[in-house]
Amino acid sequence: MRFPVLLHVRHMHIGQRRALVAGTALVGLLIVTATASAHDFWLVPNAFAIPRGGDLVIRGQTSSLFPTSGSAVAPARVAEANLVGAGGSTAIRNLSTSGSSLVLQHRPAAAGQYVVAVRLAPISVRESPASFRRYLELEGAPEALARYAREGRLPTDSITRRYAKYAKTFVEVGRDGARAHATAVGHPTELMPLSDPAALRVGDTLRVRFTFQGTGVSEAHLHAGAVPLAASLAASRADTTAARAASKRDLSLTTDAAGIASVVIDRPGTWNVRNIHILPAAANSGADWDVHWSTMVFQVRDDVAPTAGRAAAAPSDSAGALRAVEQYHRALQAGDSAAALMLLAPDVMILESGGVETRSEYRGHHLPGDIAFARAVPSVRTVRQVVVHGATAWVTSTSVTQGTYNGRAINSQGAELIVLTQDAEGRWLIRAIHWSSRARRGS
Known about the structure:
Helix content: 10-25%
Largest sheet: 12 strands, mixed
Shape: globular
Distance between the termini: 20 Å
Structural class: alpha+beta
Number of helices: 8
Number of domains: 2
């Protein structure tokens, strides 16, 4: 169902911002002034699978660059740390810090899959109207900022912004235990995998449901990305360069009416999905705005064994086809017409605006306009499906586009189908593109 939330924001990698401490800890609530650092909080296991009777060791990482950590969360700030299995939940009490990481240790009593879930106590920030506007800009919500300004809903006096963070990851203990991936941990906002993350292989698609108070949130913006497994197991400040390189391939996703987004698994490694959810706080709750940070971490192995219900396939083919589509869109956004044309087969057919164009017609007519539009108006694409049959693939995507073009406000949703074939050298070329779009409801 559609949940009437006022603001969903995209996560953007942002630098540290100075904060001045104006109070002391009081029942887990810290009052500060100015703008506080905004960082994700992730749970990264030292091992995603351990033998029965072994010890789980999980690091809590705080930064804007997965899976590195710039500072350790104090154990006193952990409001809840639980090991959630199919049969119930057990508190994790062995909390400490090591370097820039929070460290959780626990020995599970039984075999099975478990969700490790941590909720950090909220922190409140007292800030000026200008600071709050700047916060919305830094968190990637310029359209919402403009909308609230038009509606006269932006604060004109100082406000209290309260933020909390929730993290979860999945671990395997022993063999043949009960599965727990579908068990909700009860965080105010939560990322729920709709299939078992442990069964994922490259080329699969993971559907993730984003919820607020247990209800799916539509049009919420999620981000997903991965680093090589070795990098995640040794995550530290020294890994910043590798993590930054991996982050350039991050995916931007938008949930559908049921709160579901699809993550195309295009490489092995340690994956994360994340979201920031901002909305007005409840009346008399001690804050004016609430900010919820949610993350989910899981492993995708590099073997190609088929998962249950899926025939063995060449996952690299699926990833290669998706990569060609991403390269095409990046070329448009960069204004590189030559790079875009190199990805189009000589006999490509392009369907848009009620017409059909050949490669040469597209080069002379719609390509310049497509480049100008892509560079001027931001668009968030969500890959819905990648299918490969032999040397043919088709990639289905949807998008939300908002901004201004030639003095005209743009607020549309689109659909895209790209058909590709693989040549003798293994290179994927686009053979057909079909675009359609319409104004978003309420725009």
